[in-house]
């Protein structure tokens, strides 16, 4: 069935995100925009702030894919009263001019400003996707209080809130971000065919990275930023190196903590075991996952890390901290291991176990692949969002 406005024209949808850096929320947003663009009956546009910072940019990719993208220079991640007011005004004027039937926001700053502007204009359907809660136990108490208040205010203006995991839904609801009936979980989609059953020359990957061919690899994919938990891998590393002296820890991603993490590795005497691979475009990541023997996820806050299902799609086992939506994907003792956050001893023990027991690691990876393939396809995500749009419009 075609999605059309009662007048016969296409239904206008405007997506808004704070910045198009290389990250899970940003990939999700681009996949959503491109997927909805391909369906009949929609006219889709995207607004983003500039991709500032060392995390890379998806702006050029969006343009190559034909996305109707507008960059709003004043829209920034950090709180800035003057720039935020300018952003709000520009969003209001853009929405008033374009008259979308649906405004769909992503990330905290764009979520607050975009929803307020949409409400002020009178947009009939306002949707927000929570990729990661803006408030968490590790931040300043005043900032935590402010973000909770803002999310509650914005929740009043929102028709529906999408969360990328059930655990996040429950957390947002418990924080009274909105009434329970406004929430729906839709897992973040990815191009699963670009991960599954690839023929990868692992030898060439190791040679490219300067890793001995017989070395085992423990990998992590995340920005080198606070709360991403790289320090816990470093703390666990000496125990793992004791069992496997030639093991390498492959860190994919860049960020402000690189020098600090390298210094920590040097203090612990394991710097030679760490490979800081830097930024790798999302499309080029799958072969590097195939080179890994185990993927670890040690973030302290995350909606549902895309790296986990990506590892599973490549038939690799995962060891993860028990945070947010991890349990919905990592079934303890079946697809990987769930451990308490910050428990570096358990992290080392579980990684060592999987590096020693190849049969178990393979079994976990295969079971994870079956699970991830059934839940995380882009088409599955887009179909569910399309269904939601149709119900609400």
Plain-language structure description:
There is one protein chain. This protein is α/β, with parallel strands linked by helices and 393 residues long. Helices cover 43% and strands 17% of the residues. The two termini are 14 Å apart. The model has no long low-confidence stretch (mean pLDDT 94).
Portion in beta strands: 15-25%
**Distance linking N and C termini:** 14 Å
Structural class: alpha/beta
Please state how the strands of the largest beta sheet are arranged side by side: 3-2-1-4-5-6-7
pLDDT below 50 for ≥5 consecutive residues: which ranges?
A: none
Count the beta strands.
Answer: 13
Concise account of the structure shown:
With 393 residues, the chain is of the alpha/beta class. The chain contains 14 helices and 13 strands.
